[in-house]
Amino acid sequence: MAKDYYETLGIPHDASQEQVKAAYKELAKKYHPDLNKDKGAEEKFKEVQHAYSVLGDEQKRRNYDQFGSEAERFSGGGFGPGGFQGTADFEDIFESFGFGRGFSDIFGAEFGGSRRRGPARGQDLLVRLNLSFEEAAFGTKKEIEIERIEECGTCNGSGARPGTGSKQCDTCRGSGVERSTRRTFIGIIQTQTTCRKCHGTGEIISEPCRDCSGNGRVRKRKKITITVPEGIDTGNQLRLKGQGNAGEHGASHGDIIAVVYMEPHEIFKRDGEDIYMEAPISFSEASLGAEIEVPTLRGKAKLKIPAGTQSGTIFRMQDRGIKILGKNERGDEYVKAIVRTPEKLSKRERELLEKLAEEEEVSRSRKSFFDKFKGMFG
Q: Which of 130, 124, 3 is nearest to 63 (CA)?
């Protein structure tokens, strides 16, 4: 079972971002492997750091609250358990431990992380795709409306007011990165971080665009069409490459991740590629046998009920199920026969049943049953 990140940080689900950060700082300092030598402290530190990487980011937190840990598979950033990646908040916290700024870069080098140079790729956009049972079974084209970050049409994503230019950043001299050397408890460390002044672009805008305030991106609502393949099911995801949020200053777009939720059907129940249903049959049909019509995904079909069928008997209708996703094969349909006991009888029906009862060897069957029952107790 996936861990509850709120429980990991020891905070309620309605905690403010300030409470999230405060809880993280306290626990990170408590379990940091350089401050706590207890067995298991490092693993606990990783869990705390991972929980904060999700709850400390408002967008990731919203996705987590809606989709749970499944949302992390699609986030455009962050890291999984056991990995480290520095952020501004983490640097502030490490500095409070007395390690100095850039300490997270040490972890980046230690555990395989790296600092990004240049504008960031746009974040992936997680959306919920509601489908009817039939739409999931047969496939469809589904139009949905989303809100995403797009490139500003006024400045074409540059962030500069039309007709104006930009100048080289005097902090990083156009490289987009800041380099520094510091002495630490493990020796001299050279670090490289994204320039805080130009945010990795290497340029400073003279006059920002009025429509996007120099950001180069604006938030807009847009309708998109998603092609849904035949046989998709709840929990499956569809990725639309390059349809997510726009990146910074012309960087590539993120993707749209559509998470499928299939609505229940009034007749069929689905289990993978197989479907299940119940078919009511009469007492006479069960006793004498019959051929009945049952619904399938593609209309009605004949189903043979053999004589003597008991209530609860399940019949298999091969290749009547849902297409296996990505294959030219289908599942099966399973029909459970339910023998109906009439609640009200006409005079004629009652007479026939009474006559039938006289013909049956009810008394002999009952005697046999009670003889066995008596034999159990001597």
A: 124
Fold topology of 121-155+217-263 = HSP40/DNAj peptide-binding domain (2.60.260)
Residue listed under structure tokens 């094969």: 329
Which tens digits make up the pLDDT trace of 28-52?
Answer: 888 887 778 888 888 888 888 888 9
Q: Which long-range contacts (CB under 8 A, 24 or more apart) does 349-353 make?
A: none
Both tokens assigned to 14: 């309605």
In terms of average pLDDT, the best of 151-155, 198-202, 315-319, 365-369 is 315-319
DSSP structure class, residue 203: E
The residues pairing with 360 across neighbouring beta strands, listed in sequence order, are: none
Q: Classify domain 1-68 at the CATH topology level.
A: Helix Hairpins (1.10.287)
Tokens of 271: 């289990």
The closest alpha carbon to 290, from 298, 282, 299, belongs to 282
Q: What is residue 322's predicted lDDT score, i.e. its pLDDT?
A: 96
Q: Report the top-level CATH class of 268-339.
A: mainly beta
CA distance 248 to 158: 9
Residue 179 — very low, low, confident or very high, per pLDDT cuts 50/70/90?
confident
Convert the pLDDT of each residue in 267-295 to its tens digit.
999 999 999 999 999 988 999 999 999 99
Residue with tokens 């299940």: 276
pTM of the model as a whole: 0.57
75: nearest Cα among 54, 102, 103, 44: 54
The 3-state DSSP class for residue 63 equals helix
Q: Indicate if the pLDDT at residue 98 is higher than 90.
A: no
Token output for 40? 């298991």
**Strand ordering across the sheet containing 269-271:** 269-271, 274-281, 333-339, 314-317
Tokens of 42: 């490092």
